[in-house]
Write a structure and sequence with these properties.
Bound molecules: (3R)-3-hydroxy-3-methyl-5-(phosphonooxy)pentanoic acid
CATH class of the largest domain: Alpha Beta
CATH topology of the largest domain: Ribosomal Protein S5, domain 2
Number of domains: 2
Radius of gyration: 21 Å
Strand content: 15-25%
Largest sheet: 8 strands, mixed
Helix content: 25-40%
Amino acid sequence: MPDKEFVSAPLKNAVESGSVCWEAPSNIALVKYWGKKENQIPANPSISFTLKNCKTTTRLNYVKVSDNSTTSRGIEFDVIFEGVKKESFKPKIASFFKRILPYCSYLEEFKFEVVSDNSFPHSSGIASSASGMSALALCVMSLEKSLFPETEDDFFYKKASFLARLGSGSACRSVRGDLVVWGQHQEIPLSSDTYGVQYPFKIADVFKDYQDTILLVDKGKKQVSSTVGHDLMHGHAFAAARFQQAHDHLSALIPVFEKGDVKQFIKIVEREALTLHAMMMSSDPYFLLMKPNTLAIINKIWEKREESKIPVCFTLDAGANVHMLYPSQFKEEILEFVKNELVVYCENGHYICDEIGKGSKKL
Ligand code: PMV
């Protein structure tokens, strides 16, 4: 049963053609989404920092088709990624269009060209699905807005997040900045399993310009796709306890954000990262996604924190790269630390400097 609120009204007059363009950033989860139910419904709530520099820019060109004969074949489109026609990206986008069609039936009236670029190297081990799906969902919403000009801003962003989620779960947290919650949580009003909402409570200044230096340990393709990974939580011996822990961690973060308690922040964020990997290490089949250099970096960060008292910590995605998080006042010192002690553990010495961002932008 589709989520009625988001089903578009029947189209009266379609525009002939047009073009819309959005940029959307990636995001890094502090409390992780790992495990889902049908239709990309998360098994637990999550919260993330929206990033600023790692982003996807997508232009959606559309032309009205003369008849609806495309319907039976699905939506007709081409994909151009970084200037090159990409057949290999089509299945993912085709399945996105198929999933969102019950909510955006006007898509059938058009054929499309999806022209996309990432600000970060495609083969950097940074997942582009969050920024990519969110940029595309925003383009679709701009098309919807040109067909239904009365669409209000609040609904626009809510539905963009809802559609992005159908493309890739965590993408729904990339539409807005700067801290976004996805998944129902008892203490977060208006939180939802079907779209992301901006964190509604007080955030101390220290967290408003937090830095994320991404240390690229392994730039290869992900060893386990997130689809396979989420699936491993079905029947996982520790699943129920893990889902409860995510709720508890999100509750515990509320006073942390309010008071600017970086010490407690570190405890929760690092525990989340290690729990995510512990889940993969204890699933059936099991996976070890950290590399020796991931562990070397984690130990270096712990040493640095101990010796300098700088509240620097790490988090991980479902891979070997390390996101190093710290308050902006320590930027220079931490970048020195990266150059002197951590680049040796990065593939080809590569790392990316990012920070918390304000969300997507229409271009
Ligand atoms: O959005 P997906 O299905 O690629 O899953 C993302 C999962 C993690 O990045 C590991 C955690 C998260 O909450 O972003």
